[in-house]
Structures are given as structure tokens and as C-alpha cells.
Design brief:
There is one protein chain. It is built from 7 helices and 7 strands. The chain has helices at 30-40, 52-60, 69-83, 96-110, 158-161, 186-189, 193-211; strands at residues 5-8, 15-20, 45-49, 88-94, 116-120, 145-150, 170-175. It has a single domain, classed as Alpha/Beta hydrolase fold, catalytic domain (Rossmann fold, 3-Layer(aba) Sandwich), CATH 3.40.50.1820. By secondary structure, the protein is an alpha/beta fold.
């Protein structure tokens, strides 16, 4: 089934970021809108889509949970096929969307369809279950990857992630005192969520440019 897309950024951009949503938030949440707009202001093209279960909520109104990962992986791969490989393509996602992207990244890169992986708040483990880590495939990652993570993210804090075995291809941008949505406590850090989003956008633009196809 063809997907609907929300596209932000210049049509002639050399870099396209295909951005999936998290488990509970649609592609047009305020967070997704803000992050997409801020990244696109740096000259990148951001393409958002919804997995079928989330799109179905719009018509049914029922909040059905995400299907198993295998189904989501196939959907994400189908989206990449729909869009085609124009310029440099980065698979990306917020939380669950980033995890799904990470599970297909190496195969897509081997097929010449993408150049990189971007995870915005990776769910290293379920909240309150630090021993149930989701990192096995990240240890073997061959695709250049960037994970942007708040230092106090309940899905994986800086202290927790420092003990994980991760591929050398994975770079982590730590956002001081940020939560899963990059929100810091201003009274503690003196920073704002908007400042963290701008930091992410600047870093993503610089990182992705290094992947760009000449």
C-alpha cells in the first residue's frame, strides 16, 4: 500500500533523511514537526511517513499497538523502494522508528540504497528494564550511524550506554540533561529543548554531509 509523505526541505537537496515516528506518536506531532523543520533549515530534505498501524488510527480512531518488528522492517524497506535512491539517503527514526531503521540499515546499505543511519533517542532498553537491552545488532553495525541521545534518557542514559558494546561505526551525540525528547531541566542545565534540537540539526547536517555522494 502506498504511503503518504510529509516532505520538508529543498527539492534539490543532496541528502534525504527518511524519518519514521516512534511507537506512540504520529508523523505530524509537534516534536516531529519541529525536528524536521530545524534539520531542513540546514539544507537537508526530510521525508516523514507513517507505519500502517499508525495511519490506520486516523481512520479508525483506535490506538492499536505496533505490530512485530519484522512487519515494521518490511514496511520501512517498502518506503525506501517507493522513494527511490536520489542522492544520499539516510534511514532515520524517533525511538522505535530509529530501532526499526537500525535493523534494516546494513542490508539497505549493502544493496546501495542508503548511506547512513540516524537515531533520535534510541530505545536501548524498555523503561525500568535495563537488563533487557536491544543492542546485539548494534555491536555488528557496518553502516555509518549517528545516535542523538539525552544523557538522562530513561530508555538508555549516558551511564548505561557507556557499558554497551557498540560498533565503531556508531557515533553518539550526547545532549546534556536531555530526556527521551531531548528536553533538559533548564533550572539544572541552563539549556532549553530548542537549543538541543538546534544542536542536533547542526550536527546531523555536518555528519550527513560527510556521507554525501559527490
Amino acid at each position: 500500500m502506498p504511503h503518504d509523505f510529509l516532505v520538508t526541505g529543498p527539492e534539490d537537496a543532496k541528502i534525504m533523511i527518511v524519518l519514521a515516528h516512534g511507537a506512540g506518536g504520529a508523523m505530524d506531532t509537534k516534536w516531529m514537526e519541529t525536528v524536521s523543520a530545524t534539520i531542513s533549515e540546514r539544507g537537508l530534505r526530510v521525508v516523514r511517513f507513517e507505519f500502517d498501524y499508525m495511519a490506520a488510527r486516523r481512520s479508525s480512531g483506535k490506538r492499536s499497538p505496533p505490530p512485530r518488528a519484522e512487519v515494521l522492517k518490511q514496511e520501512f524497506e517498502a518506503v525506501i523502494e517507493e522513494l527511490g535512491s536520489i542522492g544520499t539517503v539516510v534511514v532515520a527514526g524517533k525511538s522505535m522508528g530509529g530501532r526499526v531503521a537500525s535493523m534494516i540499515a546494513d542490508d539497505l546499505r549493502d544493496a546501495g540504497k542508503i548511506s547512513g543511519l540516524l537515531c533520535l533517542g534510541y530505545p536501548f532498553h524498555p523503561i525500568g528494564k535495563p537488563d533487557n537491552v536491544r543492542t546485539a545488532h548494534l555491536a555488528e553495525m557496518k553502516t555509518p550511524a549517528l545516535i542523538c541521545q539525552g544523557t538522562r534518557d530513561l530508555f538508555g542514559s549516558r551511564d548505561e550506554v557507556s557499558s554497551y558494546e557498540l560498533s565503531n561505526e556508531i557515533e553518539i551525540l550526547w545532549l546534556e540533561d536531555g530526556d527521551h525528547d531531548f528536553r533538559p531541566r533548564k533550572a539544572v542545565s541552563g539549556l532549553t529543548a530548542a537549543e538541543h534540537v538546534a544542536t542536533v540539526a547542526n550536527y546531523v547536517a555536518e555528519w550527513a554531509t560527510k556521507l554525501a555522494i559527490p
